[in-house]
Structure formats: C-alpha cells, structure tokens
Amino acid sequence: MPSKEFETLPNIYLVGPMGAGKTTVGRHLAELLGREFLDSDHEIERKTGATIPWIFEKEGEKGFRSRETNVIDELTAKKQLVLATGGGAVTQPPNREFLKQRGIVVYLYTPVEIQLQRTYRDKNRPLLQVENPEQKLRDLLAARDPLYREVAHYIIETNQGAARDLAQKIFNLIVSQNISR
C-alpha cells in the first residue's frame, strides 16, 4: 500500500548500466517509500511471455527497443512507482523524454570493473554474449554515460555501500529536496 507521507513525490526511475544494481536498489527504495516497484525488463518478459535473450534472438535489438519504449511509456504513466529500467533504455530518445518529464531520474553510476564482477556469469544479458565482455561494457558505458547524465536529476555512485545503504541514500536525498516543495 502506498505511503501517504510520500504520495506527493513523483515517480522515481533508476537508470544505469547492467550490473549497477537498479533492481535491487529499486526494491529497497520502493520499500522505504511504501511504493510499488517494477522493473521494465521484467515487465517486457511478463507481457511477451518470452525472455529478453529470446526477444533479441528473434527480433534483434531494434525489436526489443521498440517493445521497451512501449513498456516505459505505459509504466511512466503510472503513479506512486519506483521503476528500474534496462541498461539501454536511455538509447531511445522517447524513453529519455518519458523518464525525465514524468518523474525523478537517478543514475546509478557503476565503474566497468564492478559491472564485470556483477555480470560475469549472467547468461541472461544478450549484449554480453561476446568474446570480450569487458570491452563490450567499456564501449556501452562510453556510449551511454552521456545519455544517463543527460536524463538524470541525481547521480549516485554504486561502488560505495550495499544496495540497502544506497536506497537509503537516494531516499534521503530525494525526500529532503522534494518534500518541502
């Protein structure tokens, strides 16, 4: 049940690279705010009945991004939500607009070394099924970091503290800067 205390706060959207902890931090943040938590990738899988790797295999990245934009448009129209987005969601201009205009965007900045540690054995990440995953992560971060920064209202480094601590830090930052409006 949504918390009355924080109902005037806009939706909160977490962006950042794969392995940033968006889903884990988002769950903790939603709990602190008494809000619903959703993950756009999980919603795509729920709606299609297919895994993201399968969608990439059958429809390519373009097909997946189209589905992702539809889901992000739908989810950002909801209220009282904490949403974790997929790492590449910001590559599509409509997604950046939906996120920035419809809520508070927090970029969970994560160095490549930490991303690699967190995603090393994860076969559910189609873009990392390459010969050199570290280089792929570096290339993705180089391309996407400016987009994350463009859309973000706040930037939080994820290499300092556990997910629960990061959620508390985001909670404190957002509540202190937005509750008095």
Automatic annotation (TrEMBL):
GO terms for cellular component: cytosol. It comes from the Bacteria. It is found in: Cytoplasm. Mg(2+) binds at T23. The keyword S-adenosyl-L-methionine does not apply. Pfam families: SKI. Gene3D superfamilies: P-loop containing nucleotide triphosphate hydrolases. Substrate binds at D41, R65, G87, R144. Binds 1 Mg(2+) ion per subunit. HAMAP family: Shikimate_kinase. Catalyzes the specific phosphorylation of the 3-hydroxyl group of shikimic acid using ATP as a cosubstrate. This is Shikimate kinase. The gene is aroK.
